[in-house]
Amino acid sequence: MKGFDKLLDQGKFLRSKENYEDSKAVIVGVPMDFTVSFRPGTRMAPRKIREVSYGLEDYSPYSDDSLNDKKYYDAGDLDIPFGNVGKSLEIIERTAAMILKDGKIPVFIGGEHLITYPVVKQVAKEYPELKVLQFDAHADLRDTFFDEKLSHATVMRRVCECIREKHLYQFGIRSGVKEEFTFAEQYTHMNLIDVKGPFLENLNELRGHPVYITIDIDVVDPAFAPGTGTPEPGGCTSKEILEVVSCFRELNIVGFDLVEVSPINDLSERTSLLAAKILRELLLAVC
Amino acid sequence: MKGFDKLLDQGKFLRSKENYEDSKAVIVGVPMDFTVSFRPGTRMAPRKIREVSYGLEDYSPYSDDSLNDKKYYDAGDLDIPFGNVGKSLEIIERTAAMILKDGKIPVFIGGEHLITYPVVKQVAKEYPELKVLQFDAHADLRDTFFDEKLSHATVMRRVCECIREKHLYQFGIRSGVKEEFTFAEQYTHMNLIDVKGPFLENLNELRGHPVYITIDIDVVDPAFAPGTGTPEPGGCTSKEILEVVSCFRELNIVGFDLVEVSPINDLSERTSLLAAKILRELLLAVC
Amino acid sequence: MKGFDKLLDQGKFLRSKENYEDSKAVIVGVPMDFTVSFRPGTRMAPRKIREVSYGLEDYSPYSDDSLNDKKYYDAGDLDIPFGNVGKSLEIIERTAAMILKDGKIPVFIGGEHLITYPVVKQVAKEYPELKVLQFDAHADLRDTFFDEKLSHATVMRRVCECIREKHLYQFGIRSGVKEEFTFAEQYTHMNLIDVKGPFLENLNELRGHPVYITIDIDVVDPAFAPGTGTPEPGGCTSKEILEVVSCFRELNIVGFDLVEVSPINDLSERTSLLAAKILRELLLAVC
Amino acid sequence: MKGFDKLLDQGKFLRSKENYEDSKAVIVGVPMDFTVSFRPGTRMAPRKIREVSYGLEDYSPYSDDSLNDKKYYDAGDLDIPFGNVGKSLEIIERTAAMILKDGKIPVFIGGEHLITYPVVKQVAKEYPELKVLQFDAHADLRDTFFDEKLSHATVMRRVCECIREKHLYQFGIRSGVKEEFTFAEQYTHMNLIDVKGPFLENLNELRGHPVYITIDIDVVDPAFAPGTGTPEPGGCTSKEILEVVSCFRELNIVGFDLVEVSPINDLSERTSLLAAKILRELLLAVC
Amino acid sequence: MKGFDKLLDQGKFLRSKENYEDSKAVIVGVPMDFTVSFRPGTRMAPRKIREVSYGLEDYSPYSDDSLNDKKYYDAGDLDIPFGNVGKSLEIIERTAAMILKDGKIPVFIGGEHLITYPVVKQVAKEYPELKVLQFDAHADLRDTFFDEKLSHATVMRRVCECIREKHLYQFGIRSGVKEEFTFAEQYTHMNLIDVKGPFLENLNELRGHPVYITIDIDVVDPAFAPGTGTPEPGGCTSKEILEVVSCFRELNIVGFDLVEVSPINDLSERTSLLAAKILRELLLAVC
Amino acid sequence: MKGFDKLLDQGKFLRSKENYEDSKAVIVGVPMDFTVSFRPGTRMAPRKIREVSYGLEDYSPYSDDSLNDKKYYDAGDLDIPFGNVGKSLEIIERTAAMILKDGKIPVFIGGEHLITYPVVKQVAKEYPELKVLQFDAHADLRDTFFDEKLSHATVMRRVCECIREKHLYQFGIRSGVKEEFTFAEQYTHMNLIDVKGPFLENLNELRGHPVYITIDIDVVDPAFAPGTGTPEPGGCTSKEILEVVSCFRELNIVGFDLVEVSPINDLSERTSLLAAKILRELLLAVC
């Protein structure tokens, strides 16, 4: 019936129409937030980010490039059993493996930060020299949290177990327990508080290397990204993070995730809008 | 690609999968709110009602019946030119005509109340003896509003020009200018403030007749439906409106609309949830 | 230091000062909401209900009685591992067992509805003839939910496995899948939509029996209790639930819980205030 | 300059144009909320109620009467020194005296409930047989509050000192300390929880008498009136209070106030809208 | 009546008391937002900006100058027919013409951005060499939007048709379709993302020229100005825009507008407060 | 009873466990906001700041130091008579005197800014050469406000009467009446708008001197600190204020307060979180 076919694409990020086979990057949403201690709610993020992307232009003046000709596929949200951490991580890992096996770049939208672990696990298998870039207010380097090994607060410690020493680069970190900073001194490149400066300083060293990027939206100050579970005042501006993201095209990105957006704390929707813009720049960088 | 096919149906009301051809009722969203004087925002309603319907069960304990086997089709939102009232009404009218010509029941989700006019215009052509049931806090019977003939405040006056005298039944009315109530005395069946009582009294008289039902969500008290443009304290409860809607299956409904839900004023989403429940009962009644 | 000793009691429900040993009822908060599918956030409820109880009077005009002379103890919140359902239920169960062993009445504040299961499990051991009264918008009688046996949507099915057939009394139910209603017909006393009427009808039959009461706050309409995870329009008023709760003193209550209050969706705090009032009446009834 | 003269009347309640001299009733706003213990914010009420009255019709279907021909004057807000209770009460009292001396009916909009005291003090001088009707969730009958004699929690006790014994009629009361209820037994007509029933029962007894009416908006349930400082679940509906207010025309009202509306807690504005409707009915009753 | 005369000036911006005849600048509010596609609501802006201006000081430390001695007149809001774009633009244009004919500077408060078009049309007639400065996140240079020539998304294209080539200066632009940027290359001075730097670079070139300034509040980052219809993360700070506005006194401003403030999305009111401050600086610059 | 002892410390800032006797700094909350003219609500701040501190780490990467070994004591909130300014200030002053007499550093959490006056009064007695550092958007230097000498708008004028001329250093000031700026020229060191730059310039001059620091949270831009009574756009970022606060350890701080946080306007809680972080850095600096 003519005139009535609009609805079919509404649910997809920036109206992606490509099919899976031809795509270069594959977007997967993960509505998981069970291990969060403070304010859950990130499970609604993938849907919300897609919804607000409806108002975003395909064209980016930041990179003078348009998503129109790019080949990416939005695969929708994973079906995960609420409250079952083990099974959920398994499903994420299996999905990442499948995308990698098909020669595509996995792009995961959280959900909580823990989802980074199963993805990096698979990406690191494919790229043993993988370097991981973490943009985050929190170190996330504890060994355990409330006695649990798998938590949003331990995720980057687990990630460190998948990659080589000193292959984790951390930017914007401004919260953690003493032990995390001691660990970081020896095993990671940690940059405190600042984001753009340290990133540009490391850019040359990173060029060419296969890199995985994980952005915890709380790296940005809660003024710009109030919609997150553990807001941490003192972060960078939205303008600054967009300047950093615009440089991603100079990197060899083999995987990416964007986590901890929490629509329930985002009345103005500006956090989801910022996430959608970051995602657009990222897709322009890798496709 | 297996496991990734979930997203396609997300945008539809209660995951309707039927195709247009086999359907008995056709849902159409109309994102229009230009003539509103107080608080615009109802244009976001069709999408929001679909979104919250995701959490609604197919089965209704109110009518012990399930939408699973019902044939309805969600055609999505109409593309209307923002700010152009004339063209927008034309598009709505044409759409209603098409659905009626195909022998189906039109179900419109507003948007503002003015959308009722072009739909009833077409339905009344098909059913000259049509009776219209209006559930509303406001009479909407002015002849003009700010000198305009076509407005959310004049819509039922226009509707009266399409149907026979005294064929409009109004329930829950509790606001208007003196002239509207004078007009109503002569030309409509107006019931003040109360909803369920007067409806049940009229039920017998209405049975068998082709009826068109228009529900302005503000007939319900703003405690239960805060998400609306011109909230009017002193309305019925959500329990009461659901009891009334459960009786709709005793009527011969040939068209229906639900208008004035405004998601921007509905932080708790309970207005959209109530609208989705009303819509479910309605579809159970007509399919 | 004089004048500075106020703070110590701030965190407790209605400034309870009694110690554990002398208490008749013991309040325990459970900040758990991992299995929730729609809107998590109930983990913040125990703290919030205590906080708003600060503005509540000890004296109740509903029962002309005061909490001043009652012996109850607020034990604070349980330490549970976020995301670990199994371990969390174990901790709850162990706590309930301890309270029962000490001859006291367990009063649990959720958190999600699943917490009812481990508590009833222990209470039913103590009282094999136990009858359970459930006030809820949802049947919660599924056998599995997303393949999981332990979920907020299956909790009352699990509870049924702990008590005798037809020993579950359900009030206010207005949502569920077909199978739940079929199950209920055979195995429970289910009362649809209405609360006060059916409760009063059953009151005589229940008198004397050991009863456990679980109140899911969503039994109340979202107009009165917007702060909940799965709001279901069409419920009872706050006045009605308070009238019902005032009758609890005629019952032989051996355990109680109040679940699914979600402060994050409760901007006006009226849901937490209602919960605190219910809790006050309950404590007056059992102490 | 033609076409530009609209603004002058915007700030007034329902566009009152009358001058003071010809008016029968005089509206005065009192932006005072200093003695409030829980949530201040009622000082913004008079302005807000005027603002939302802009969307209210002059005509009332409740009483089939219109404000168009009524003589009332909106005198604006009093200038009071923030934080200075004594001086503020003095200013209120002087204003009430002036209005009464001019043979007009004082209509005060709070602000906190304490403002009732200085007004009744003057009205009772004029009408020694004055009966006071209080619609309120709280008894407000303490002798002191935090050692202060003048407080929102003691106001009706002070009022009792201005009028004869048993000349205070209280409706909807559902909170207070034990002592208040003991006092009420001897010195007032207190009706618990219910509003409309008790009011109708007392109506005959009150007819003819000079009466002063004070409505604390929290008599209405927080579902209908969330915008108030000490919300108390279990109150009446907005429909019920409007039915009661519609009967006020049968009384001989010589003074009136409406207090404790708090716009800051009234996101949907429905509390202010209800207040404006109550005020309209009241003005229709006395003018 | 003494002490009661406060209200008359409440509705005006910063209590402007001057009459029209003596004024140098005339403020006009335009409650229009019909052509907006995403989030309407800007129609409430003029009233809200006036309301919050009540808390603003007359004196500005930014320019060490006070509005006390300045001659400006707040003419209130235009009466426009909701939903009728053509008639509304006509009314705006006629008003601008009248103000210009009287030798005064028009200062319009939106409403949506489309209102700039009829104003500039008249100003450009008076000043054929007019240069227009646009501070905006969006280029607004489309030729048509949803087939409409007159829309908030095409307004600066229409403006370009009223002034000479390359006489439009754009600052802060960070969103648009490819075609707009191509158009800008040839016909406007477009500055991407940054605001203060490019403005200062152009300041000398602009000095002396008659200039019209249009500020779309979304040029500021949504962290500082969340109350707008199409928030675009990555903008300037409120401090930066105030620094720019403080330089306006060096220009020969012959007309001005401030658009797209949307109070409904501005819970903290900081967007309206920023708008009021900008307006104060502007009036200080031109009076 | 083991496992149930968690609650006792919940109400304290960052779980302070120290007793008063051994402490070096003593935190006192003052729930006072009676003299506020615009938006009251700061009385809830002390409790809220303690509540959110629960999610804050003891360790600070800003100063590479941890609160674990520091000796500070949270004494809770003062009991003050709501609405009685005189008595309240007396209580505050007496408390400050007691803390100083015991050789400890007073740390007050407001409440409104007026509370600074009684504290400084006592501190200045102890340290006649005291210099006061004020971080604030408003000068607060009026002599009277609405005829009152004691007000949040006159507080720093009163403070000036307690210390030597030119011993008040003001940073970030961007609002006030002309007279305040004239006064400042002669009697204080006032720095307009900027915060970090001027502070660093004055740092050397201040080193060694006994200093009292008062931070009005509105010195920070409302984007970062929306939860305040009189938001003033154009302030510094949260990152900037934290950088400044990190330098406090270079000063000889003998007293401190943090005022004007208003939880009711702080939906995202980021203002309270920022306040808690500032407080942590301050305690690290003085203990």
Topology:
Six copies of one chain form a homohexamer.
Chain A lengths: L24 E5 L15 H9 L5 E2 L4 E2 L5 E6 L7 H17 L3 E5 L6 H11 L4 E5 L19 H6 L7 E6 L4 H10 L1 E4 L3 H11 L3 E7 L21 H9 L5 E8 L10 H17 L1
Parallel strand pairs in A: 1-4, 1-5, 5-10, 6-7, 6-9, 7-8, 9-10
Antiparallel strand pairs in A: 2-3
Helix pairs in contact in A: 1-8, 2-3, 7-8
Explain the overall architecture.
- Six copies of one chain form a homohexamer.
- By secondary structure, chain A is an alpha/beta fold.
- In chain A, the strands form two sheets. In chain A, strands 4-1-5-10-9-6-7-8 form an eight-stranded parallel sheet, sandwiched between helices. Chain A has a two-stranded antiparallel sheet with strand order 2-3.
- Helix content of chain A is 31%, strand content 17%.
- Chain A has helices at 45-53, 85-101, 116-126, 155-160, 178-187, 196-206, 238-246, 270-286, and strands at residues 25-29, 59-60, 65-66, 72-77, 105-109, 131-135, 168-173, 189-192, 210-216, 252-259.
- The first copy, chain A, has one domain: Ureohydrolase domain (Arginase, Chain A, 3-Layer(aba) Sandwich), CATH 3.40.800.10.
- Chain A starts with 24 loop residues before the first strand and ends with a helix.
- Chain A is built from eight helices and ten strands.
- In chain A, strand 2 (59-60) and strand 3 form a beta hairpin.
- The interface between A and F is medium-sized, with 25 and 22 residues.
- Chains A, B, C, D, E, F: Mn(2+) binds at residues 113, 136, 138, 140, 216, 218.
